Amino acid sequence: MDYIISILTFSGITLVGVLGAYLVTGLTGLFSFGQAAFLAVGAYSSAVLVTNYGVSFPVAVVIAMLLGLIAGLIVGVPTVRLRRDYISLVTFGFGEAIIAILNNSANLTGGAMGLSGIPQYTTFPVVLISVAVCLTIVVSYKYSKYGRQCLALRSDELAAKSMGINVNRLKLTTFLLASVITSYAGVLFAFYTSYVEPGAFGWVVSAEWLIIVFVGGINSLTGTVISALLLTSLPELLRFASEWRIFIYCAIVLVIINYRPTGIFGEYEFSWRSLKRIAARGGKAV
Amino acid sequence: MLIIQQLINGISLGSVYALIAVGFALVFNILKFSNFSHGGLMTLTAYMGYMGALFFMPYIGSIPLFCATILTAAAAGGITAIGVERLAFRRLRRNNSPLIYYFISSITMGILMENLVTIFASSNFYSYPKFFQSSVITVVGLNIAVSDFLMLFFSSAALGLLLWVLYRTKIGLAIRALSFDVNTASLMGMDSNRVVLATFIASGVLGGISGVFLGINYTLYPQLGQLIVKGFVASVIGGLGSISGAMIGAVLLGVVEVFLISFVGAGLAPAFVFIIMLAFLLVRPRGIAGVIVQEKA
Amino acid sequence: MSRLDVTNISKTFGGVRAVDNLSFSVDASSIVGIIGPNGAGKTTVFNLVTGVYEADSGQILLNGRDLRGLPQHEITRSGVARTFQNIRLFKGLSVLENVMTAADPHSTYNILDVLTLSRRKRQREKQVKELSRDFLNIVGLSHLENEKPENLPYGLQRKLEIARALATNPKVLLLDEPAAGLNPSEVRDFIDLVQRLHSDYKFSILVIEHRMEVIMTLCSHIYVLTFGKLLASGTPSEIQNNKEVLEAYIGEEDASCCI
């Protein structure tokens, strides 16, 4: 039971981070390859504040999210102006730069050895509530002028501009929201694993999140959620395969991408309305 | 004097980066996406080159061994590239999938290849055998490492060969045609499958050679492919969509990096490279030789 | 009101002078046509007015305000809307959402409203939905509001583009070959729609078309372009009898052909 709870907790933390990737890549079509960097910003800043400076946890969380916002501005402002192709490279570079800085600030962050002894404040209930809140925010964002305009600019940026959409500002707003949410995920992460080291925030993590979004289906938030839960637990389920498990994981993803490119869930989106409809129909059958 | 020394080191390093950048740019030109599996391919072929070196070592030594290693890696690279194209990209092309899926497929493929290396070679570090008796030659008071010299030589040769193929052969013409518009080219009777395959093979060969060079420079470890980021940065600076731009960008990157390392140390160099790249993009978003494609309404 | 005055605009691409010192104007609440052979620069003119390209020189005045150099979205928000020659609808959004997206820039709620699920947001969302439904109703697409735009037949896609342009609350509506690909009955339907919109909303309309039926029926004034330059300008009957226009389109009369 404990084992399942721990998998669910970790999946939940990953999901919060993935929601950031969903906003930037799924909704807006920006291929950001460095989202994990915000995870690092959130994790390290909160960890350092609490362990080195004795700041209280709630305050540290807020500061971490603010730092995430600032980092998002630094990367976002130049990035949103770039051609689509460059965004992946620039965000990738940002991610690697953050890791390099973290590796080289041994006195503050413990360098490559990492920071340990972080108190474990992240419990399953905390994660559950965090997921619920973040999911609500993302759903609210998707079904708002922001979400619609993001989808529009993802589909056809020129036409979007012609309909009066301020494309650059919208990209930046989405990017900033994602960076704040991801930083928060970083806080959850640090205070769950009790130990952070720069290598845990590399581009592979960003890649994994993108894979999750795509396997679930970029047009489906429901798909992203379920895919996050599935794919996070998959390596655990594949434990029996030991050293081959990443290989098998990649193989599965490749198969899905190639044979069902719209993702497992395609365009499907869960909605309360459809649930009510099913319930009503079920009632009639009786 | 020291500056010239650094410059030469930088150019030599840049030539290796050029191999990476061009291998990357070839695929980008035709399929219009960043092939993130290139790093994994480089790692895989670097190890295969190593196995080739071990195989030939009892029979030949020094320069012939060096050449044999390179050839093994190049061949391995070409063959692996065929596999990558077949497995990761062919179906996507057939289904006319949007660009984003190619990214995902390439990333996954890259992780898969890196993981293959980890499974078979574990996380130990390996080094290439010492190819040369004296490791440094002295010319006009400047020291050039023999390996650096040979890398510069072979990189230039490989790139020269590539340019010859691109501009003087039929398949090269086809590759260039397809990089303008895949659909029109196939309507004109070019077999896009064959041409794409040829491009991947060329990309793989270059990747294989660069893998060996990186392995010599940095020793062999499974994450070697992460140095692909140098190729990315070089391509961006040089201008996505331009082979010559990628070469120029790479050499520039090599030189800048060598000087940066002497100032801020190898640890922080990536951060500075990133800042320089950002600044460059802000000033000249299309890169040195890149092409702006203006969208028509 | 809705006056568009374009004075001496030019645009050169590489060595090609696509638009050459062109001037024209659209009076308030009028329908004006732009015609000319292919390659005359008509769509380029639209692109210059809407800010897709910046004109090298000249002035583009909307009610006296110069639009030249403004970013596209600002030009649209000033009141210039357009449809596209090659339909550019938003895939991934439903028919209704396509229209809502064009009305969204006018919504004033902010990100905090989204984060707190405020009443302001919910009310405005409802409003935008109703508004967009009205626009769909006007063009006759109400029954298809949840469809995917790419599943609609061509003629209906064109109507959706118009509904979407309407949602931006335009003062001037630019229609780029709106009747292309329509069969004769669809064309008549379309002409009716434009006349209805014009009398209901009173905005100005600038139309590029090759279908003379559309131009001659709708427009009070016509500009003829060729090779980026203005060839002729006048009322429909004046243009129909203009020798130069006929030559540009059909060619010179060759006496040896007459029997």
What does this structure look like?
The complex is a heterotrimer of chains A (286), B (297) and C (259). By secondary structure, chain A is mainly α. Chain A has 13 helices and 2 strands; from the N terminus they run αααααβααααβαααα. Chain A has a two-stranded antiparallel ribbon with strand order 1-2. Chain A is globular, with a radius of gyration of 19 Å. The two termini of chain A are 37 Å apart. In chain A, 54% of the residues are buried. The mean pLDDT of chain A is 86. Chain B has 297 residues and is mainly alpha-helical. Chain B has one domain (16-227). Chain B has helices spanning 2-31, 38-56, 62-94, 99-121, 146-168, 170-180, 182-187, 192-218, 228-238, 243-283, and strands spanning 136-139, 142-145. Chain B has a two-stranded antiparallel ribbon. In chain B, a hairpin with a 2-residue loop joins strand 1 (136-139) and strand 2. In chain B, helix 1 packs across helix 10 (243-283), helix 2 (38-56) crosses helix 8 (192-218) and helix 3 (62-94) packs across helix 4. The model of chain B has no long low-confidence stretch (mean pLDDT 81). The termini of chain C are far apart. Chain C is globular. Helices cover 39% and strands 23% of the residues of chain C. The mean pLDDT of chain C is 90. In chain C, helix 3 (95-103) packs parallel to helix 6 (154-166). Chains A and B meet through helix 4, helix 10 and helix 12 of A and helix 3, helix 4, helix 9 and helix 10 of B.
List keywords for this structure.
heterotrimer; A: 286 residues; mainly alpha; two-stranded antiparallel sheet; 13 helices; 75% helix; C: 259 residues; alpha/beta; six-stranded mixed beta sheet; four-stranded antiparallel beta sheet; 10 helices
**Inertia-based shape of chain A:** globular
Rg of chain B to the nearest angstrom? 19 Å
Secondary-structure element string of chain A:
HHHHHEHHHHEHHHH
Query: How many β strands of chain B by DSSP?
Result: 2
Oligomer: heterotrimer
Distance from first to last alpha carbon of chain A: 37 Å
* Strand line-up across the major sheet of chain A: 1-2
What kind of sheet is the major sheet of chain A?
2 strands, antiparallel
- Assess the beta-strand content of chain A as a share of residues: under 5%
What is the total number of structural domains of chain B? 1
User: What percent of the residues of chain B sit in helical stretches (DSSP H or I)?
Assistant: over 70%
Structural class by secondary-structure content of chain B: mainly alpha
Strand order of the largest sheet of chain B: 1-2
Class from secondary-structure proportions of chain A: mainly alpha
Low-confidence runs of chain B (pLDDT<50, min 5 residues)? none
Total number of beta strands of chain A: 2
